[in-house]
Amino acid sequence: MKFPAIILASFSVSLQAFSQQQPLPVLQTFYVRGNNSDDLVPSSQQSFQYDKDARVRVHKDYRWIEEGKRWAPGSSVESEYDEVGNLILQRSTFWHTLTDTINHISTITQTFDQENRLVEYSIVDEQPSYGYYSETRFIYTYDQNGCNTEVMLQLFSNGVFQRERIIAYVTDEHCRAQVVRSYPTAIAEGPHDATVYTYADNSEVARHVYYIDPDTTLTEEYLFEYDQSGRVVFDQRTGVNRSFHEFDEAGNPIRQWYDDWDNETMSWKRSSEYYQTFDSDNNLLAQENYFSPSPTGTWGISQFGSYEYDGEGKLHRIHFRSVYDFGLVSEVTSVKEFSYRCDGLEAETTSTITQGDNPGLASRTITAYNHPSGCSNDQNLPIVIVPNPAFAVVRLLLPEVFEAVTIHMISSNGQLANVITTNRGINPVELDVSGLAAGFYIIRVMSEGFVASGRFVKN
User: Fold this and answer.
1) What is the distance between the alpha carbons of residues 113 and 54, in angstroms, rounded to a whole number?
2) Which of 149, 169, 208, 419 sits in a 20 to 30 Å window from 362, CA-based?
3) What is the pLDDT of residues 86-95, one digit of tens each?
4) Is residue 168 situated within a structural domain?
5) Is 155 a domain residue?
6) 453 in a domain, yes or no?
């Protein structure tokens, strides 16, 4: 099965959207406006560690506890890959942020055969405080042509088998599904459902047939059409909804529109439209989104977005405007501004939302990246690190005393080695580095409105 690319209705653009032009992020710190002041206070933080092939090995999430002035663990995801790059183990741990106790553990394991095909997928959910865990297994079977012919689903609760279900595939010589049946193993010939696929040129028809009993069926029909590049340009769920998709010469989605079926008029009614414009470098320049139509034919919600880039092609500014017309027209404007320091080592995002004439929420995100290539920005202030090289302790002499700083230690391979937060002016700052592995490190000291950096060698 192939599925259409979707233009998201919301204007959410993450820093990863232009990661091809930036190094990999190692730390993201989020700030929001405080409840009782206009000052931005810490909100959450994410750190990333990578393997030699730039795959995320460890991802940690923290929540700022204002009362204790500390970062509390929120979640941690550790991933392992085999030598060909398949994800074989992923362990996710979630904490109660106030008590620092583990609430939930999720472990995913994947097994592949010699042909690099997935043969078993397992997910185990544990809740230690309740003494409960469940396991879901998917077991995959292939025919001599390498086509997936069966998926067996098994459910366990606290080690006790609960139920089993089979998804069986009948495929053609191209491994395209012709019939997909799903049923409990105990009643393989009883009530079940099936999807029947037929192919003609660049179109595909999927008929979903529910076999309620031997004499009763309920049929739904899905239709997909593809262009010469294999992209979905039309899909339809008969009597429910349909969508159309257009692409430019570079393959960027530039237009999508959606219709819903109206049973009263027995006709299609437009439900939403999305437009995108790209430049010659395939950078997104503008978006227009329309949805929630009114009975009079006007759009209840209209959204407009524009994107600006600097001379190096890095995203510089995003301007959003949303117009709500449900009897009383109102507008909301959101501006995101991106600034870069130290040749892309760090990016800062500032967001401001204005509703009418009233300023609303403001937030800031500071992202530190790996693979620094040096600094030539006046905003990056120097610090003195002694002794250097160091064995157990280093002292940081800052260019001036700052009230609240966050210190990041980044190893030579771009991994975050440590994070220290101070909330009162200390100069010099003394750091214990005895637990660090030997090697070269970058120290980044960040606070409101400034960043300072230095390098040292750990013996």
Assistant:
1) 24
2) 419
3) 999 999 999 9
4) no
5) no
6) yes
Residue with tokens 């939930």: 104
What's the CATH number where 412 sits? 2.60.40.3080
Buried b (16+ CB within 10 A) or exposed e, 199-221: eeeeebbbbebebeeeeeeeeee
Q: How many CB atoms lie within 10 A of CB 448?
A: 12
Of 314, 220, 388, 227, give the one whose Cα is nearest residue 13.
314
- Residue with the two structure tokens 């117009």: 323
Which of helix, strand or coil describes residue 75? strand
**Amino acid letter, 240:** V
Type of residue numbered 437: A
The span from the CA of 256 to the CA of 202, in Å, is 19
Distance CA 230, CA 434 (A): 56
Reported as type and span, the H/E element at residue 88 is: strand 87-96
Q: What angle do CA 64, 47, 112 make, to 5 degrees?
A: 130
Q: Which two tokens stand for residue 35?
A: 């409840």
pLDDT in tens, 178-225: 988 888 876 545 557 888 888 887 788 888 887 766 677 778 899 999
Domain count, the chain: 1
Q: Rounded CA gap, 221 and 216, in Å?
A: 17
Domain containing 459: what range? 378-459
239 contacts 261 by C-beta, under 8 angstroms: yes
d(CA 290, CA 181): 38
Where are the extended beta strands (E) located within 279-328? 284-293, 299-309, 315-325
Token pair for residue 25? 């992020």
Alpha carbons 4 and 253: distance in angstroms, whole number: 10
Tokens 């076999």 locate to 211
pLDDT in tens, 83-118: 888 999 999 999 998 888 899 999 999 999 998 999
Asked if residue 430 belongs to a domain, the reply is yes
CB-based contact 141:120 (threshold 8 Å):
no
